[in-house]
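Lay summary

Proteins are chains of building blocks that fold into shapes. Our project writes down both the chain and a compact code for its shape. Here are two examples, one after the other.
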Amino acid sequence: MSNLKRSPDDPIGLKTVKGDLLDLLDNGVFDIVAHGCNCFHTMGSGFAGKLVKRYPQALGADQRDSILGDQGKMGTYTQCIVDTPSGKRVRIANIYTQYYYGTGYAGGEHFRLHALKSGLQKLFEDHPGQLIGIPLIGGGLGQGPIQAIRDLIAYFQTRTGNLVLVELPE
């Protein structure tokens, strides 16, 4: 990835790419695209909403391979393989990083950092050497702690070298 760079404004030197993760998925840039989702088979907004409009197989994998509302899914993932316009087959991983969906959950923040860590760990164990592209999982509708999420992504970048954070251009 020639446009991979370290963010100058990030003290931990997080490697990011500016772009649209869905376009990069379409172009077959990554072996795997992972995103965060909830445990209620709901992918109607945020990155997940955009993803399933283009690749409904991601929602199909969630509905087919997991139980609605099961808290035991937290920190695990479901997956599907899609044929992209580039001709490359790419795996999409639905990492269960929040129990509820939407915003404004009265019980507190939706996103769980430990679930992202567990999900990424399992993904790397199951698919070693695969290049994984992700959005800032939990940084939008999940209302997670942005710097802690960025630190966790940097941790996996250091350990694997195969994780790329894709951020939309400003």
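And here is the second example, written the same way.
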Amino acid sequence: MAIGAFGIGTTESAVVGLLPQIAGDCGIAIPTAGGRRPAARRGRRRFGCRVSGTLVLDREGLSKLVRREPELTEWLSAAEAEDIRVVMSSVTLVEARDPRVNQARFDDAVSRVNVIPPSESIARHASRILSAVGLPGHTYALDALVAATALASPAPVTVLTSDPEDLTMLCGPGVAVVKV
């Protein structure tokens, strides 16, 4: 019986660790990939696993948070419940600003996230990332700063983005990139 319990526990842990990648590859929400109902109906955690490390928002992540889209509010609620640090680069504030959105609503969304300024070391890291992957700064500077911010954050790191291809290339294999 102990061997059976070990086997079941090991298999569940392996799948739980892969859930963000599975959901991202399939283009579906994590609760759907995990076969879980939202926490509001379950009264428990938001996802089929404990979220840990750092959650990074890019422009689209912040925009969806401002619009209070359920997928993003679910991610944020899960992170807050598990005491996970939610961050974004300060350049995301500028990139995501839409003049049609009420400033108070924008500020309210931003207040739920730790804003990380691009220090010289983050900017230099972003520059090295662009050089390593052969992309021009004038086109990919903001994504590179988001990637450098993610790579400087405590692991494991998950980036929520509408542009998983570019951020996966810029972040490398050490960061889970999930399409939102």
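What can we say about the second shape? The first helix runs from residue 2 to 26.
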